[in-house]
Inverse folding.
């Protein structure tokens, strides 16, 4: 059980590491167009991201699929950029056209990419483990807890800007999406294979 808690802590540290802020940036972009009334959608997206992230770790740890690390390191900021750009389109679309289906599909795909970005390090940690499933579940639990914390913080920031400071939601999403794009562009340049 002590190992399980170790992997929960590792999952928490993986997401909440401010030195490797790409995970946080992606989650902020993911939750950005939503408000507290959409908390179930945001929680669903965070959970789908966790499942996909851990599924790619599973594929890698068991040697089923191994990806080129240099391309994955480039694709991670690409997923952040695409999510921020999608927010600009999503916020301008009419309410009747705002389906979460595209969010779900892209979040799952992007979760796979992000998981492969951590897979080499995770495989080294798991090298001595005979049963790899409990550590993987512990890691997934840590990831989910930290992601729920981040998206909840984003919903609080959204509430502050929209409800307290009375900034229109569309303007808020546009400004923050542009900021995320500007932060992500140097990451893309630095990681281009």
């Amino acid at each position: 059980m002590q190992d399980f808690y170790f992997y929960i802590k590792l999952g928490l540290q993986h997401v909440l590491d401010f030195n490797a802020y790409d995970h946080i940036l992606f989650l902020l972009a993911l939750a950005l167009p939503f408000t507290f009334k959409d908390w179930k959608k945001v929680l669903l997206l965070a959970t789908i991201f966790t499942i996909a992230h851990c599924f790619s770790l599973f594929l890698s740890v068991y040697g089923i699929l191994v990806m080129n690390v240099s391309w994955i390191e480039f694709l991670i900021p690409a997923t952040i950029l695409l999510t921020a750009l999608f927010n600009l389109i999503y916020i301008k679309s009419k309410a009747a056209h705002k389906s979460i289906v595209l969010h779900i599909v892209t979040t799952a795909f992007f979760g796979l990419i992000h998981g492969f970005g951590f897979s080499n390090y995770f495989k080294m940690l798991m090298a001595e483990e005979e049963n790899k499933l409990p550590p993987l579940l512990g890691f997934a639990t840590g990831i989910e807890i930290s992601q729920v914390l981040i998206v909840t913080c984003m919903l609080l920031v959204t509430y502050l800007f929209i409800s307290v400071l009375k900034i229109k939601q569309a303007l808020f999403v546009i400004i923050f999406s542009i900021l995320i794009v500007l932060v992500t562009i140097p990451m893309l340049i630095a990681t281009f294979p």
